[in-house]
Amino acid sequence: MFDIFKKKVSGNLDSGKKELNKDVDLKTAAAVLMVNIAYADKEFSGEEREYINSILKKDFKLVGEEGGEEAGEEVESVVKEAEELIMDDTNKWKYINKINREYSNDQKEELILKLWNLIYADDNLDKYEDSLIHSVVKMLHIPHKKMIELKVKAIEENK
């Protein structure tokens, strides 16, 4: 009886470990961070959605065969997947870890600037957005001084 319980628990732990270590692609990792920031104030505005869509198209070259419609469908698919992942997944570390492994410091700083621009896309800095981006910056090992420089730059770009 104990062996059956032990196998059941061990099997559940192993499957959880596999899921936790399941690698995500960089596009999804970036989208999860952006969507997470967009939802931090409990409202995913149209401006924020448009900004995320444009970043995904530009940074991940989502253009489709004909340029427009297919790219839009792919971007919407990535955003929808990111929305589902932030609702279902309590372990954000794997997305941060993917970015830490794949991005240079310059690319991380560029991503942080984009996150600040996303925050200011609706002309409002919510305390939850601010708290979340500070956490992301720490996990991406970006110095606080650099984060402030990027924030000021985003404010200037959004005037």
Could you explain the architecture of this structure?
This protein has 159 residues and is mostly helical. It has one domain: TerB-like, CATH 1.10.3680. 75% of the residues lie in helices and 0% in strands. It contains eight helices and no strands. It has helices at 2-21, 26-39, 46-59, 69-88, 93-102, 105-119, 127-139, 144-157. Helix 2 (26-39) packs across helix 4, helix 2 packs across helix 5 (93-102) and helix 2 packs parallel to helix 6 (105-119).
Order of helices and strands: HHHHHHHH
Q: What's the total number of strands?
A: 0
Overall outline: globular
Determine Rg (CA atoms, Å): 18 Å
The CATH topology turns out to be: TerB-like
- Please summarize the sheet with the most strands: none
What share of residues is helical?
over 70%
Give the CATH level 1 class: Mainly Alpha
The termini sit apart by 68 Å
> What would you give as the CATH superfamily?
TerB-like
**Classification by helices and strands:** mainly alpha
Oligomer status:
single chain
Strand content: under 5%
Number of domains: 1
As residue ranges, the low-confidence spans are: 4-21
Layout of strands and helices, then pairs:
Blueprint: H1 2-21, H2 26-39, H3 46-59, H4 69-88, H5 93-102, H6 105-119, H7 127-139, H8 144-157
Helix pairs in contact: 2-3, 2-4, 2-5, 2-6, 2-7, 3-4, 3-6, 6-7, 6-8
Task: Quickly list its features.
single chain; globular; about 160 residues; mainly alpha
In brief, what are we looking at here?
The protein has 159 residues and is mostly helical.
